[in-house]
Amino acid sequence: MTATLTQPTVLLPVDVDEPTTPPDALIDLLGPHRVVVLGYGMVPDQTPTEQYEAEFGDAARERIGAIVDEFEGENDVISTVVFTRDRSQTVDRVAEEHGVDAVVTPAEIDDRVDEVLVPIKGDPNIVRIVEFTGRLLDNGEASVTVFHVAESDADEARAEFLLRGACDKLREYGVDADRVGWKQERSGSAAKTIAATAEEYDLLVVGESEPSLRRRILGGVTGRISDRTNRPTLVVRRR
């Protein structure tokens, strides 16, 4: 049974050793929702974790605190700082601890998020992907396009039914009808086609390939999409 999302919870991982910060447009998009800012520091193999944290912990917490302050006046934002040798395992664990609905991979965005691409297929996660997108965008102005890459005539016909149904659901979740659309293309490589199409949009919302975000980080169609595009991506977790 799929749980109903009332307010999405998004995990925002930040490498404390990198000087970049999440773009303002991403903070504006996530601000009205519950956000968990995960600051993670990668511990060198030969260095004890406790020693590394003692040396760099204060600076890391100060940096993450400054990012949390960017959400000032918005909704529920919490933070945690972890020093680790395994980024994917840490993201998985923190996402589970906080009941996270989606994990964001930040990237550069222009001044605002105007166009969102939601690639879907007929997997069990489609309901959560569509509902999450609806809750994320219901009070905003961004337009959303639900997208499918078909591999055959039969796949194309079946997918049109899914695409139209997804658009109907987005409207039910509060996204204005004139901000919702769908399209479909034929291709033998879903990842390559989605990545190319994503260049026309500001943000992607995709589904987790399996019940572990390690798949998102280490491989699979979702991972290959991220490798081929510089657009920020929200990965909706399975439950």
In short:
This protein has 239 residues and is of the alpha/beta class.
**Number of helical segments with 4 or more residues:** 8
CATH class of the largest domain: Alpha Beta
CATH homologous superfamily (4th level) name of the largest domain: HUPs
Total count of strands: 9
The radius of gyration over CA amounts to 18 Å
Number of domains in the coordinates?
2
Q: Mind explaining what this structure looks like?
A:
This protein is of the alpha/beta class and 239 residues long. It has helices spanning 24-30, 49-69, 87-97, 126-137, 153-172, 190-198, 213-218, 220-228; strands at residues 9-15, 34-42, 77-84, 102-105, 115-119, 143-150, 180-186, 203-207, 233-236. Helix 4 packs parallel to helix 5 (153-172). It is globular. Mean pLDDT is 85; it is low at 213-221.
List keywords for this structure.
9 strands; Rossmann fold; 239 residues
Map the helices and strands.
Elements: E1 9-15, H1 24-30, E2 34-42, H2 49-69, E3 77-84, H3 87-97, E4 102-105, E5 115-119, H4 126-137, E6 143-150, H5 153-172, E7 180-186, H6 190-198, E8 203-207, H7 213-218, H8 220-228, E9 233-236
Parallel strand pairs: 1-2, 1-4, 2-3, 5-6, 5-8, 6-7, 8-9
Antiparallel strand pairs: 4-9
